[in-house]
Amino acid sequence: MQIKPIKNSVTETYSKDIVKILESNKDGLIQKIIHEEEQREAEHKNTSPLSKKNRIFIFIGIFLLILSFGGVFLYITTSNDSTVEVAPQFTPIIFLDKTQIVEITKLPKGKILEGIWGETQNTNVKIGGVEGIYATENNKIIGFKSFMTLLKSNLPEYNPAYINENFLLGVVNDNSFKNLDLRYKVVSDSLASLESNLEEMNLARKTILLEGEPLVLNNSSFFKTGTAEFVDVDARSKAKTTISEFLDTIDFATSKVKVVGTYSVERPTKKNNAIAEARKKVGLEILNEVLTEKYTEEEIAQIVIEASAKGVSINDTYSKEEIELMTSEEVTQIIDQAQGIQYYVEAKTKGKTILTAPTEEQKKLEQEIEDVKKEIKEIEDLKKSNTNIVVNTKDPFFLIKTRSFSDVFPVFRAWEDKMFTDLHGFFGIDITPETNYLLTKDWQDGIIQNKNARILYDKDGTIVFMYVFIDENNVLITNTEKATEEIILRIASSKVRK
Known about the structure:
Residues 355-389 form a coiled coil. This protein is α+β, with helices and mostly antiparallel strands. It has helices spanning 9-47, 52-78, 112-121, 144-151, 180-205, 233-247, 272-294, 297-301, 320-324, 328-338, 360-383, 405-423, 481-497, and strands at residues 98-103, 130-137, 140-141, 163-179, 206-208, 215-218, 256-264, 304-312, 340-345, 353-355, 388-402, 444-448, 451-457, 463-471, 474-478. It has 3 domains: 14-78; 98-175 and 392-497, no CATH class; 210-351, CATH 3.30.1330.60. It is built from 13 helices and 15 strands. Strands 1, 2, 3, 4, 11, 12, 13, 14 and 15 form a 9-stranded mixed sheet that branches. A 4-stranded mixed sheet has the order 6-9-7-8, with helices on both faces. The chain is elongated, with a radius of gyration of 50 Å.
């Protein structure tokens, strides 16, 4: 029997079927795969930064970014320049006719105030007008404390609440008309008044010597307390003058002179007798000096002189009841006036009037009279060449806002010792051998335009500069009364407007 092989129809059929399927769909599937790949490639090209289209967008973006940063930088670096000149950051304290900005970085190093003073003298503000000056540093308005620091000033430490940062530098353009005839009359009237006052003082000093009444070189005017030593050379010279006038009242043919050194019984010490003896000795010495200078030897030979020492008491002159009515100061004064050196004459005198030693007040008055006479002489010399003098001055000022007078007065008072050192340049004053005495000169109390002031005078009595308390909240530093008057008016005006 013949065995016939069996055909694997299933396997064959499946394979063939697969092949047939692949063959029948060959073009469609491949095309689909290729199409999908092409799409992915196209998308990749569109998103790639290396594509021509995207490179253009990137370059445009970078350019715009750089342009933006440049604009911001330019704004930051130039924005301040356009704002400084518009208005200062502080409200002006007073009404100003003109305002000026001074950049201190452009001024000579260490000469800030001198530079500002130069600006004040170059002002073209109207006559009687006020120009305000604001100091800036790198185009920023400087506050008070920073300004003092830049000046390296010696202003003492203070509570920042006491002084406002808003302050004002400035200049008053003053036009002073001086009529020499009018000035001469004013000064002459002043001289007449001073001489009248001096005459009244001299009348109070006059003593009429009666018989037996002593001339006393007393402890209150001539001697250092508790000694036989003169207060100074002037006191000794005045003692000789007084003795000389005393001797003019004596008729030496019938009189003798007694010299008595005295001490106060009311002030008992172990040295009292020694003090009285020393004063007797000084009294004889100075009397002999005057006699030698005043008279011949023949005249001196006729003079009889006696000397002694003793204690004197207030009870010798006043009763117990009178003493009880006196104040302690009056008792002390009488005791001082009684002790010293007494000169007696035992005869009737001619009753001549003499002057006792002048007081310090009288000495000052005499000096003031001499100064006025000197001014009159200067005016007379000027009048020979000119009748009227017109003087234009530009007066700097420094106006400071404060919380109250009581807060800042101690601060300014403590600053006085160094204020001239710190501010002399602002008033156009150089420190030279002729002006360096002002560095240590004492300030004086004064009244300017009815306001309390502290004033620095030069040796001729002229105001160097001063600080004036305009009111509770304003202190003015300036060098003329005219500038003070103008600032006071403007402060008052600003208060009215408010």
